[in-house]
Amino acid sequence: MPYVNIKITREGGPKGKGPSAQQKAELIAGVTDLLVRILDKKPASTMVVIDEVALEDWGIGGLPVPEYRSRKSEDN
């Protein structure tokens, strides 16, 4: 039974609140189709979970993403 966990930030999508329900449905269908095609898994036993994480709860290089991006843009 495949279990796929997709973690994304809420910053994108409609009005900056993350992906729409339609976009999530497309991700779920696409990942399921990929597992069927590549690994011959049954769609009925494939689980896909999408976790939306607030941008300030995500970090890169020891910094919250907004601060990391700010510093990176200052370097350019």
Explain what you see.
It is elongated and about 45 Å long. The chain starts with a strand and ends with a helix. The chain has helices at residues 21-39, 65-75, and strands at 3-9, 47-53, 59-60, 63-64. The chain is of the alpha+beta class. Strands 1-2 form a two-stranded parallel sheet. Strands 3-4 form a two-stranded antiparallel ribbon. It is built from two helices and four strands.
Explain briefly what this protein structure is.
This protein is α+β, with helices and mostly antiparallel strands. It has helices at residues 21-39, 65-75, and strands at 3-9, 47-53, 59-60, 63-64.
State the end-to-end distance: 45 Å
Number of E-type strands: 4
Helix content: 25-40%
Strand order in space, largest sheet: 1-2
Structural class of the helices, strands and pairings?
alpha+beta
Outline type: elongated
Structure characteristics:
alpha+beta
Topology diagram in text:
Blueprint: E1 3-9, H1 21-39, E2 47-53, E3 59-60, E4 63-64, H2 65-75
